[in-house]
Design brief:
Layout: H1 3-13, H2 17-24, H3 38-48, H4 55-67, H5 71-81, H6 90-101, H7 105-122, H8 128-134, H9 139-153, H10 159-169, H11 175-188, H12 193-203, H13 209-216, H14 221-228
Helix pairs in contact: 1-3, 3-5, 4-5, 5-7, 6-7, 7-9, 8-9, 9-10, 9-11, 10-11, 11-13
């Protein structure tokens, strides 16, 4: 059975044109998609994942899916990769996917908050790479440097790293990057509200309003008002 042929045939059978039109409106940049609802895409990913295949063969299939540039095929690729047992050498593969195939915020967030985040949690020695991404000319690498920490902060104390990356991204002019580190700060505030609030107050005079609003979104009203003054 040609797995990729079957996957693409099933995706085409389940296109929802109304959903496709609505989804496109969420992106400023062009996006290539079939128009299949994400829960069903994940069902397809589960249905066609072959746990008996060798890891390198699964990675090759993932690469072919990613090369198509379809958002739904990227979700399947990231889902398959997320089911594997990671080794240190896999970091290089994932980083290459980030650089070559992530070209919108949805791919970035799906990849980083699941698959890539899981690998980084297992091998934190690669955390230094986030500082390099945060200074990249590629907006998706910069966004990834913050978004990937969301997976980590809900499981372990990576607050110091979130502040470190936020410092690098603090004055970034790209609103999707501002939203990314603001989002990371917001998630961190669930456990470390005072520390995140203090960080926001310290930087509120220079922090873009977009990032600031994201960061304080879950805080009590009195704290939000103080931060917005």
């Amino acid at each position: 059975m040609n797995i990729l042929f079957e996957i693409r045939k099933e995706l085409k059978r389940n296109i929802d044109l109304k959903y496709k039109k609505g989804s496109i409106n969420f992106f400023n940049e062009p996006i290539k998609l079939y128009g299949v609802r994400t829960p069903y895409v994940r069902k397809i990913a589960k249905k066609y994942f072959d746990k008996n295949l060798e890891k390198n063969k699964i990675f090759k299939l993932c690469e072919q899916l990613l090369k198509s540039d379809y958002y739904e095929e990227a979700i399947i690729a990231f889902s398959w990769a997320n089911r594997l047992n990671y080794e240190k050498k896999d970091f290089k593969i994932f980083e290459s996917w980030l650089k070559k195939y992530v070209n919108n915020w949805a791919k970035c967030d799906d990849f980083c908050t699941h698959t890539f985040g899981s690998l980084l949690l297992k091998f934190p020695e690669f955390l230094f790479k986030l500082n390099i991404w945060a200074k990249s000319k590629n907006r998706w690498e910069r966004r990834a440097s913050a978004v990937i920490l969301i997976h980590l902060i809900v499981r372990k104390n990576y607050l110091k790293k979130i502040f470190e990356i936020s410092d690098i991204l603090l004055l970034d002019k790209d609103d999707l990057v501002q939203k990314a580190y603001g989002w990371a700060l917001k998630v961190a505030s669930d456990k470390y509200q005072k520390q995140v609030f203090d960080y926001v107050i310290k930087n509120k005079k220079i922090m873009p309003r977009t990032a600031l609003r994201y960061a304080i979104e879950k805080m009590p009203q009195n704290m939000r008002q103080k931060a917005m003054l």
